[in-house]
Amino acid sequence: MTIVFRTDGNTSIGTGHVMRCLALAQACRDSDLDLALASAELPSALVGRWSEEGVLQHRIAETPGSLEDANCTARLLHETGARWVVVDGYQFSPKYLRRLKELGCAVLSIDDCGYAGPYCADVVLNQNAYADKSFYPESEASTRLLLGLRYLLLRREFRERAGHRERAAAPRAAKLLVTLGGSDPDNAARTVLESLRFLNDASLEVRFILGASNPHAGVVSGLAASISRSIEIVRDATRLSDSMEWADFAVSASGTTAWELAYMGVPFLALTIANNQRFLGDSLARHGVAVNLGWAKDLDAKTLALHIRRLADDAEIRARMSRAGRRLLDGRGAFRVIQALGLVSLSLRPACPEDSAVLWNWANDPLVRRFSFQSDPISWQHHEQWFARKMGDPRCHIWIADDAEGRPVGQVRFERQDDDAVSIAISIAADSRGKGYAAQLLRLGLRRAARVFPGCVAHASIKVENAASVRAFESAGFSLAGRGAIQGSDALRLWRAL
Question: Which domain holds residue 295?
Fold first, then answer.
């Protein structure tokens, strides 16, 4: 066990703390780390989300944020052999964090605005665009600060769409996504729905996401039905990225979802529905990814309708906002966090068009050509054609391994064959060999492939003389399936179930 997460979610505090912890937890799972979740209160839908990741869950029976709570959390770390605890929530005071430290826990505190100072955590993460070290003047000298969008926590469903964020702005936006967070306690949804009544636009398709803890779900659904049949209500959306890819533009609360929209290149109108969102709305506007409309409770439906119509009609503004969001975020924030904790040295990401030249150089490395079954040099033209085919083939997945500094050091490729077999090939950059990266890259890649190709068997063919590669595959759990000639070379065939 490596990391314990301590966070809560309910109608009053929302689900944002839990969801950004889930983003970090998914990156940990993708990096082959073990996890546990400790919570005092969690909506059933979110319990299921964490269960899908194979995370052990523990109930905290003590008052959230109390010293008794800290004692229980520390005891869980000791029982599971974990070293790090990730704490996210406004109920966790400086005394709480200090108690965890006194009990021998290494603490990562996820924060928004320096509310829990003075900090005694080992690491403080503030992923907001406005984050600044001036928020933490009384932190201990040993406390490391991870500040800004470089460390933004994005869930796996968004990270895996890294190569699919380009979008052309429609001359007139016709698909509107509305997402107001996990709870929306003041029912800002009513104002948004009334604005759609003012618009009275039969050509506008609306998808309205209701969060897992929304206390007004019944009222919202009934009001939507009375306004228009073209308003689709979605409860507890498990793949919000699908709806973002569908949408031309959006109306969103200024919470975690706002940065997910920006990452996906969706232009949007930002509403503040909670105190902790005030700074974020200004940041979104300052970075050009959204129009900040301020407090939802101060916004009348007619004014909101005018803003929706204006954004729908202005393709140029929407295109500019979309480009700004894609430039601002690279999706690697969660991996930077766990690398900063010293828990992993490599992280995987899907290959993107910009990786083509790097892959070509790796493929033409003399050692790679020597151990390939086709050893002739590869022309740039041939490589470009091959890479375009592979990037467009849903049966093929190429992942790039980056080191702690964000430098690409290797690649692993899985490709589904006609049956349940999946071929695998890896390569390590010449200046990164001898560091044990191959075996680690294989383990990380196999974890990804098991999700993409469940129930399949991975196969690798390796020249007998390539002893280092054979050792790496054996250390990753591959077994010998046979030996024979491939294109005139003596080769070993290895296999492993995914």
Answer: 158-328
- Radius of gyration for the alpha carbons in the chain, expressed in angstroms and rounded: 25
Closest CA to 383 of 427, 349, 353, 410: 353
Domain CATH code at residue 88: 3.40.50.11190
User: Within this chain, do residues 17 and 134 fall inside the same structural domain, yes or no?
Assistant: yes
Tokens of 211: 């969060």
**Residue at which a domain ends, from 294, 328, 362:** 328
Q: Are residues 445 and 482 in the same domain?
A: yes
Amino acid code (one letter) for 183: S
For residue 468, give both structure tokens. Answer: 């280092």
Give bridge partners of residue 415 from the DSSP assignment.
396, 423
Q: Write the DSSP symbol of residue 151.
A: G
**For residue 412, which phi and psi values (nearest 5 degrees)?**
-135, 135
How many structural domains are present in the chain? 3
Element holding 220 (H helix, E strand): helix 217-227
Residues counted in the chain: 498
10-residue block means of pLDDT along the chain (498 residues)?
90 84 94 93 89 93 95 95 94 93 96 78 92 84 91 92 74 94 77 89 89 72 81 83 95 91 95 84 92 93 95 96 92 91 88 93 94 93 95 94 88 92 94 90 92 93 93 92 92 94
Distance CA(195)–CA(280), nearest Å, equals 23
The answer to whether 118 and 139 have CB atoms below 8 angstroms apart is: yes
Instruction: Give, rounded to a whole angstrom, the gap between the first and last alpha carbons of the chain.
Output: 22
Q: Which of 51, 55, 87, 58 is nearest to 70 (CA)?
A: 87
User: With contact defined as beta carbons under 8 Å apart, do 446 and 496 qualify?
Assistant: yes
Using DSSP bridges, classify how beta strands 457-463 and 489-497 pair: parallel, antiparallel or unpaired.
antiparallel
